[in-house]
Design brief:
The protein has 526 residues and is of the alpha/beta class. It has helices at 10-13, 61-73, 95-102, 104-107, 119-136, 148-165, 182-189, 207-213, 236-245, 266-269, 278-281, 365-405, 426-432, 436-445, 473-492, 494-498, 511-516; strands at 140-142, 172-176, 193-197, 218-223, 249-253, 273-275, 296-298, 310-313, 326-328, 334-336, 341-344, 421-424, 452-453, 462-465. The chain has a domain at 96-371: Type I PLP-dependent aspartate aminotransferase-like (Major domain) (Aspartate Aminotransferase, domain 2). The chain binds pyridoxal-5'-phosphate (PLP). Pyridoxal-5'-phosphate binds next to α6.
């Protein structure tokens, strides 16, 4: 890569104008036909009407298209380049799934549709529950939570309900030092106190520390395995027995499922509750690209507390009061005959132990469609392949980086990794004077999205790299070459990386300032 050019890129020169600054009064992208029904005034009560029409942009269709297409190009996205953001599993999103999710029967299905008229959708959701149960090794699934972190909250609330039902009041939740920030945040939101468990020399849970902290005040241990260090904890059975020994539950943060899917199951390891990040493991545009979903799977003893409604399959011929099941007659009317798939709002009726509803309606249905398409198009063996290649790609990239820059960016723990690995930029910072942040910013000039930086917190100057299974060997090689080039460049002149990036629409941003004092109104006409 040539020496950085201080002159601005075309994108940098063009100030991003807002849509309000474009167009002109009266300009339109669309003109509605004249009314062909009588006009009725006064339908909106006087008190609810605006005194002035809202100030909306007025622009032509080409202006609109260019405005939004150009804005979209100012961002880095998975469809334009490698995105090895550790822990986030930014794998390719197959286009087949978009086509299936866009079918009108899926995309236009109203969430209040009578279950009798939505049998296909409910069947898909039921089958997805069954598939996720199989993958987790736990028999009961709720699709309700909207994200991994929401699944965590559901799991901790289930834990609370479980203990309360047994007449127990527990006050703390254990998490290892390497935990994702959402784990302690969830614990605090759910009203528990976080107690940290130390890591051992290999990066796993320090079993002695766990044993010392596990007592009957502990409600739960939240863990991901492999951990956010990309290391599978070989002591998991012992960990499970310590946690169960004090009557606590074991919670599996499923964000790293890509590393074990089809090979080992959290349920078999002894976990009671698991969340899935469907958007990570099973493809769904995410990270500013769309909604996610965080279904949970649980063991028999947690099942009574699951949220409602639950998608169920009723035995043929079942009749259930107002839920009496019907099908479409030839004339489109509902006639007798049970609907097989249904929403069980009741879950045990008045004696229900359910924690209730976690959100409006049934969950992010479009994500379910994509996930189901992914699981069914790959099949069980395909899912194993995914996980094998994810681990292989990560180890290949690790080996390339070791060979090229191992002395400046050593692996933080262990010798090999699962689906991701953590390097430490501490030697690079000490010897070359550039930080992990500088390296990350300079990678943008090479056309790569930076890996996750400064997480996990237990590693100094951390760089968490997750290539995923959908990248080619050439891409992995090019990425390793780019990192080596940045290190070589810094040996000669560290200032270059310190001032990067040079080719992006904006340079270094005041991130803390942007979070604390966002300027969102200033650009709009007052
Ligand atoms: C992404 C992630 C979460 C949170 O999941 P969201 O779906 O983003 O809410 C939790 N734990 C780990 C380890 C993660 O990587």
């Amino acid at each position: 890569m040539s020496a950085p050019d201080a002159s601005q890129t075309k994108q940098q020169r063009e100030r991003a104008t807002t849509i309000f600054e474009k167009g002109a009064p009266g300009r339109r992208a669309f003109r509605a036909p004249d009314l062909d029904v009588p006009q009725v005034d006064g339908l909106i009560p006087e008190g609810m009407r605006r005194a002035q029409p809202p100030r909306l942009p007025e622009a032509s269709e080409p202006e609109l298209v260019r405005h939004y297409v150009n804005l979209s190009k100012r961002n880095f996205d998975l469809d334009s380049g490698f995105y090895p953001l550790g822990s986030c599993t930014m794998k390719h999103n197959p286009r087949l799934h978009e086509r299936v999710a866009a079918l009108p029967g899926h995309a236009r299905l109203h969430p209040l549709q009578d279950p009798r008229r939505a049998q296909g959708a409910l069947e898909l959701m039921f089958n997805l529950q069954e598939s996720l149960a199989e993958i987790a090794g736990l028999p009961h699934v709720s699709l309700q939570p909207s994200a991994g972190s929401h699944g965590e909250l559901a799991g901790v609330l289930l834990t609370r309900a479980y203990h309360a039902d047994r007449g127990e009041q527990r006050t703390t939740v254990l998490t290892p030092d390497s935990a994702h920030g959402t784990n302690p945040a969830t614990v605090t939101m759910a009203g528990y106190e976080v107690v940290k468990v130390a890591l051992d020399a290999a990066g796993g849970v320090d079993v002695d520390d766990l044993r010392a902290k596990a007592d009957d005040s502990v409600a739960c241990l939240m863990l991901t395995n492999p951990s956010t260090l990309g290391i599978f904890d070989p002591n998991i059975e012992e960990i499970a027995s310590i946690v169960h020994g004090v009557g606590a539950t074991l919670y599996y943060d499923g964000a790293n499922l890509n590393a074990i899917m089809g090979y080992s199951r959290p349920g078999d390891m002894g976990f009671d509750i698991v969340h899935f990040n469907l958007h990570k493991t099973f493809t769904q545009p995410h990270g500013g690209g769309g909604p996610g979903a965080g279904p949970i799977a649980v063991s028999d003893r947690i099942e009574p507390y699951l949220p409602r409604p639950q998608v169920v399959r009723r035995p043929p011929g079942a009749q259930n009061g107002s839920n009496a099941l019907h099908e479409n007659g030839a004339d489109g009317r509902l006639v007798g005959g049970p609907p097989i798939f249904d929403l069980d709002e009741d879950r045990g009726g008045r004696d229900s132990k359910s924690i209730g509803k976690l959100r409006g309606f049934q969950g992010n249905y479009g994500v379910f469609v994509r996930t189901y398409a992914y699981i069914r198009s790959l099949g069980g063996e395909g899912l194993q392949d995914v996980c094998e290649v994810a681990v292989l790609n990560a180890n290949y990239l690790l080996a390339r980086l070791r060979e090229k820059v191992g002395d400046r960016l050593p692996l933080a723990f262990g010798e090999r990794c699962m689906h991701e690995f953590v390097l430490s930029g501490a030697p690079m910072k000490k010897e070359l004077g550039i930080r992990t942040l500088d390296l990350a910013k300079r990678l943008l000039d090479h056309g790569f999205h930076p890996p996750t930086v400064y997480f996990p917190l237990v590693v100094d100057e951390a760089l968490l790299i997750e290539p995923t299974e959908t990248e080619t060997r050439e891409t992995l090689d090019a990425f390793a070459d780019a990192i080596a080039a940045i290190i070589a460049e810094a040996e000669a002149d560290p200032e270059i990386a310190r001032n990067a990036p040079y080719t992006t629409p904006v340079r270094r941003l005041d991130e803390a300032g942007a979070a604390k004092r966002p300027r969102v109104r200033e650009v709009l006409p007052q």
